[in-house]
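Quiz preparation item.
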């Protein structure tokens, strides 16, 4: 009895290309990217605009800057922000 390998339809349609690690980003690159990605980004921009229109943001006076390098610089103790509604 001879053993044969089974390929799925996606493997036949899109062979692995060098330099594109599909296994790490399955919904963000290539012709099979997430169909809701553009809508989700637009929705996030709209929400951010609405927040910026209605509230003012400033750092707390007790905030002490202490960066912690973990690939990106992040505040060690979080970032305390005062959020105040904008009076119209």
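Solution:
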């Amino acid at each position: 009895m001879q053993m044969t390998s089974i390929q799925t339809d996606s493997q036949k349609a899109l062979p692995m290309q060098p330099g594109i690690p599909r296994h790490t980003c399955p919904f963000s690159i290539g012709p099979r990217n997430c169909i809701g990605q553009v809508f989700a980004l637009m929705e996030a921009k709209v929400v951010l605009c609405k927040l910026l229109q209605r509230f003012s943001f400033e750092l707390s006076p007790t905030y002490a800057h202490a960066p912690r390098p973990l690939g990106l610089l992040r505040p060690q103790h979080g970032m305390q922000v005062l959020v105040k509604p904008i009076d119209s």
